[in-house]
Structure formats: structure tokens, C-alpha cells
Write a structure and sequence with these properties.
alpha/beta, five-stranded mixed beta sheet, five-stranded antiparallel beta sheet, 19 helices, 15 strands, about 40% helix
Length: about 600
């Protein structure tokens, strides 16, 4: 086997060590032309568009590239391997396919420098990415001897060790302020620590206080320790975010525990944050399987399987309202398909398509913010993702008629886009409260109808004027009812001849604007002046078009029957034009 002298820029644990830390059978080594002792610096999704950094360094030097969507038996696999080899990648991972790697691919890998690996059947890309990155951070130096020797994921041991270093009480939390671990109680805790530990999360009102004061903004935007001074209620606290690259894994909090914090407590927390990365990463990765199962149960519950309520975390005898939030990126609609987390790749998009686009990244960001708001809004909120939509099951309090009101208000405050594609716009709707799990599919369907209403409103606005919008079902009943009726009429409409069909076909063939003119006239309640202003034409021009529509096709808005047909036909035509029609067979269980 060829030997290799590592490039001076390549540092990190060996490929052999990384593979040894993940479950056997996750990946198979097909060819490793330089052996498995090559260093690994990171694990990323394959991007064939970049081959060299500005300084001439190979863009993927030391990287394990996950070639999502590439099968080792496919013709493009050879191009992907060669591109990875040019960029200096340590390894590239593909799906093996039914036939396994082609002989030509294996031969090319043997002549190159990049190891060829295949993903075992049944392993999802999200799981492979998480396990490789966890193994990578486990292989990094712990940063301090004080926390060395802890087994991976031993957050309680980590909390106790850090408590001894800082001289205070330690709490380790996830980004949603849920308690993952805390140190031993050697002294009587202050009231806030007691409430947090007993409830396994920071109380909602305290989260609201810290958010309003800007504390969380400061915590998540710096790599240093943030100080929360003592007041007449609680002891002083120090907090630091735990990061793996740009990803925030959680936070470590130190509170004075019946004695002042050590003078070097801040320095100890900085060290602890570095040492905590592999442990929180381990917790996050191995917790994902349970999270995926729970999210799959939520999708099953929303599709009508009431037996999934317990696995989804839904209390059977508690009322819930379903909130649907959609990251709006222009005309077009994705209806509910019931697919769980396993159907989406590590970037949150179906099968990896469009994972790296600005629209996809913005959509993930806005839905992540909403999920965080839901977690902080009320204990017991259950969330699930489906493409660019977020589904939230909001439990009702005692005697509460509108449990989703505050959550919708939070969605309304999200930033709105002002570019040609409003990538930061969110449309959110709430369905009626369901008395139990059996009523959740109906609440979900109503919430989706609200989103469709908001989407149709948005398509009638210039892109730069679209803003985030929220509504409850009882606020849009007339429009939602029209959508339901049009859904029923649409399959029949195409087979019926008539004046509206003739007019729209003429517009399609000749590029005329009779349909737009009649639509504007009807939307303006048959007010010619208002309709002309909306069309940006002279009123006489509009009158001429309306007269010609009557003469050529028999479309006379003064005739009640024709006016009704025109309303139906033009609305259905607008659906097809904007892509906002419902995809039959996927929108309901």
C-alpha cells in the first residue's frame, strides 16, 4: 500500500481512529490508497463547486466528504471521486447501491489519494454525519486534565468536575434552557436553582426575563463568559455557550453555592466549555435517534394514528391546538406529506435537494427560531418538521380557549424579507382546539388552510411588500371555506366548457390580458376606477377590455351566473399561475 507523508497543513485524528469510534458497520472502507492513518480535520457535505482556497490550499484538505445522493454504482460517482481527490479530501462516502461500487471506480480510487467509503444500508445521512462529527470531537484534546477520563456523554460527571473547578453550583442546559445535568447539591440551592432542577428546565417567566434583558442575545453571540450579577432574589451567575464550530450545543451555568465563586471561575468555565464539546455532541447525536422516533410519532398522530400520542409526548386527556408555520419563499405550496425526520437530510431538506441554497438556509433559520419560541412558550409543546413547515402541538391551560395566541404573536414579530424573494417571511396559522388526540388531524388541516389563505394573500402582493402574517382559523373562515369549495370544484372545472375557459385560452395563446382585467374588476367590486389603478391602466382602457371580453367570449360581469363562473374560473387559474393549488392526495390523511 502506498505510503504518505502528511501535509504540514493536515492535522487532526486519523481516519482509523474516527472509524474506530463509530458503531461497527456504519461505514465500509472500499479503498484507502494512503492507508487509514491519514489525518481528518472535519466532516462536511460534498460541494463539487469549490476545489481550492484563495491561498492555493486544497479546499477539502483533510475532510471526510459525504456525497449525499451519489450511488457508488452510478456514472457520476467517478466524477465525484476525482473532484474529491483534486481537493485533497481524506475520504469520500457514497451510497453503495444494490450492485456496489463499479470496478472502474475502485480502480480510480486505488490510483488516487482519497479513501473511498460506502454507507451501510439502513444508515441515514443525518446519522452518519452526527456519528462522524461526534467521533471527531471525541478525538480532540479535552483541553484540561481536570475533565479527562470522563466517559463520553457523562454530563453529570462533567457538571461535578466543573463545580469543583469554579467553586460553585453547575447546571448544563441545552439551547432551549432544558436541564441536561447539574452538580451535586452540597449547599442549599437558591430559589431559582431549585425551581430549575425540579422542573428540569428554566421557568418560562425567567426565560422571558433573560430574553427581554438581552442576556440570551449576549450569551449566544460571544465565545466568552457572560456575567449575570446578583440581585435581591438570586446569587451571581456566570454562563458560557458550548460551541462546535458555528453550532451552539448548549450552555454551562455557574452559580454561587453558599460561597463566593473562585477568582478564576471565568477561566475555568472557558476551559470547561471546550471540554464539554464532545460530551454535548455525544448527547446530541445519540439523542437524535429518540428525537427522530418522537417526531415520526408526531407525524403519525397528525395523520390520524391516535395510538402514537404517548410516543409523541402528547397527554391523551389534555386539549391541544395545532399551529402550522411555513417559511415563505415565494409562490408555490408544499402540502403535508406525513414524512418524518428520516425523510430529510442533515440540512433539513427532502433527500438533500436544495440543502445549500440561500432559501433553504433562511427557511431552516426561521423555523429554528419558531421551534425555540415554542419550547420556551409552554412546557409540553411538541414540534415536528416537514420540509419548510413546522408543526407545533400547543397544550391548553386550565380553561384556556386560545392556547396558541401568544405563540402566534411571537411568530408575527419575526423579521420580514424585503428582497425579491422574501426568505425571512413566515406564515403561521392555528387550528381549533382539539379535545384529544383523535381531533388533532382536523386541527392540523384547519391550520394548514389558514396558511394557504395567508399564502394566497401574499401572492397578490409585490414581493418586496410581503410580510410575516399569522391568523387563527376563526379569523379566516370565509376565505378558508372558499378554498375548500375550490378544492372540490377544481377536478370538475377542467372538463366543463364555457365563456371563461374560452377567454383564458385566448389569453394563453395570444398573450392578451382579458383574464387579468376581469379579475381586477371583480376584486374591486366592479369599480372601474379602482380596478384601473390596480392594473396601472386608464379607466377607458379597462372599459374597452371588459367590452371586448363580453363581445368575444360572453364574459359579462353584469350577469350573475357568468360573474359566479368568472370568480371560480379566474381563482382556479390564479392557483395554477402561482402554484398555490393543493396537491390532491397529500394534503390530508
Amino acid at each position: 500500500m502506498p505510503t504518505h507523508e502528511p501535509d504540514r497543513r493536515e492535522t487532526g485524528p486519523s481516519l482509523e481512529r474516527i472509524l474506530g469510534l463509530i458503531d461497527p458497520g456504519t461505514l465500509d472502507v472500499v479503498v484507502a490508497p494512503r492507508g487509514t492513518g491519514v489525518p481528518v480535520t472535519d466532516v462536511v457535505l460534498h460541494d463539487p463547486g469549490e476545489e481550492q482556497e484563495d491561498d492555493g490550499t486544497p479546499a477539502a484538505a483533510g475532510l471526510i466528504l459525504l456525497a449525499v445522493g451519489v450511488e457508488a454504482a452510478s456514472p457520476e460517482a467517478l466524477d465525484v471521486l476525482r473532484a474529491a481527490d483534486r481537493t485533497g479530501a481524506a475520504a469520500v462516502v457514497m451510497r453503495p447501491g444494490d450492485r456496489g461500487p463499479r470496478a472502474e471506480l475502485v480502480e480510480a480510487a486505488g490510483r488516487g489519494r482519497t479513501a473511498l467509503l460506502t454507507r451501510r444500508p439502513g444508515q441515514g445521512w443525518t446519522e452518519v454525519l452526527g456519528r462522524l462529527r461526534t467521533a471527531l470531537v471525541h478525538s480532540a484534546p479535552a483541553g484540561t486534565a481536570g475533565v479527562a477520563g470522563l466517559r463520553p456523554g457523562d454530563l453529570s460527571g462533567l457538571a461535578n468536575t466543573v463545580a469543583a473547578l469554579v467553586g460553585g453550583a453547575i447546571t448544563i442546559e441545552d439551547p432551549q434552557s432544558r436541564v441536561l445535568a447539574y452538580s451535586r447539591l452540597d449547599h442549599e440551592p437558591d430559589p431559582m436553582r431549585r425551581l430549575t432542577i425540579l422542573g428540569q428546565e428554566v421557568p418560562r417567566w425567567r426565560v422571558d426575563e433573560l430574553r427581554a434583558s438581552g442576556f440570551f442575545r449576549a450569551l449566544w453571540s460571544t465565545e466568552d463568559v457572560v456575567r449575570l450579577p446578583a440581585d435581591d432574589r438570586y446569587a451571581e451567575r456566570l454562563a458560557i455557550a458550548v460551541r462546535h464550530g458555528s453550532e451552539v450545543l448548549g450552555s454551562i451555568w455557574a452559580a454561587a453555592d453558599g460561597r463566593p465563586l473562585a477568582e478564576d471561575a471565568a477561566a475555568a468555565l472557558r476551559t470547561a466549555a471546550r471540554a464539554a464539546v464532545p460530551h454535548l455532541s455525544h448527547h446530541q447525536t445519540w439523542g437524535r435517534a429518540a428525537a427522530r422516533a418522537r417526531e415520526g410519532a408526531v407525524h403519525a398522530l397528525l395523520s390520524g394514528d391516535a395510538r402514537s400520542a404517548r410516543e409523541a409526548g402528547v397527554t391523551a386527556d389534555r386539549p391541544y391546538a395545532v399551529v402550522v408555520a411555513e417559511a415563505y419563499d415565494g409562490p408555490g405550496e408544499e402540502t403535508y406529506d406525513g414524512r418524518g425526520a428520516d425523510a430529510y437530510d442533515a440540512q433539513g431538506t427532502p433527500d438533500g435537494r436544495g440543502a445549500g441554497t440561500p432559501e433553504a438556509r433562511a427557511g431552516r433559520r426561521v423555523l429554528d427560531v419558531l421551534a425555540l419560541q415554542a419550547a420556551a412558550y409552554r412546557p409540553g409543546c411538541v414540534t415536528a418538521r416537514s420540509g419548510r413547515r413546522l408543526y407545533v402541538l400547543v397544550p391548553a391551560g386550565d380553561g384556556e380557549a386560545d392556547p396558541a395566541r401568544t405563540l402566534l404573536a411571537g411568530a408575527r414579530t419575526l423579521p420580514a424579507g424585503t428582497r425579491s424573494v422574501p426568505r425571512d417571511v413566515v406564515l403561521a396559522g392555528a387550528g381549533p382546539v382539539a379535545a384529544g388526540p383523535a381531533g388533532l388531524p382536523a386541527s392540523r388541516e384547519a391550520a394548514e388552510l389558514v396558511v394557504r389563505v395567508l399564502r394566497e394573500r401574499a401572492t397578490r402582493l409585490p414581493a418586496g411588500e410581503v410580510r410575516s402574517a399569522v391568523a387563527a382559523y376563526d379569523e379566516v373562515v370565509p376565505e378558508a371555506t372558499v378554498l375548500r369549495l375550490l378544492d372540490r370544484v377544481e377536478p370538475l372545472w377542467g372538463s366543463l366548457p364555457g365563456p371563461v375557459h374560452a377567454m383564458l385560452e385566448h389569453d394563453r395563446v395570444h398573450g392578451s390580458a382579458y383574464g387579468d382585467s376581469v379579475t381586477a374588476y371583480l376584486d374591486a367590486s366592479c369599480d372601474t376606477g379602482t380596478a384601473a389603478r390596480r392594473l396601472n391602466v386608464h379607466p377607458n382602457t379597462l372599459r374597452y377590455r371588459l367590452r371586448r371580453a363580453r363581445e368575444l367570449f360572453g364574459v359579462d360581469p353584469a350577469d350573475p351566473a357568468v360573474r359566479l363562473l368568472a370568480e371560480i374560473g379566474l381563482r382556479l387559474a390564479a392557483r395554477r399561475s402561482h402554484g398555490t393549488h393543493r396537491s390532491h392526495g397529500t394534503g390530508s390523511p
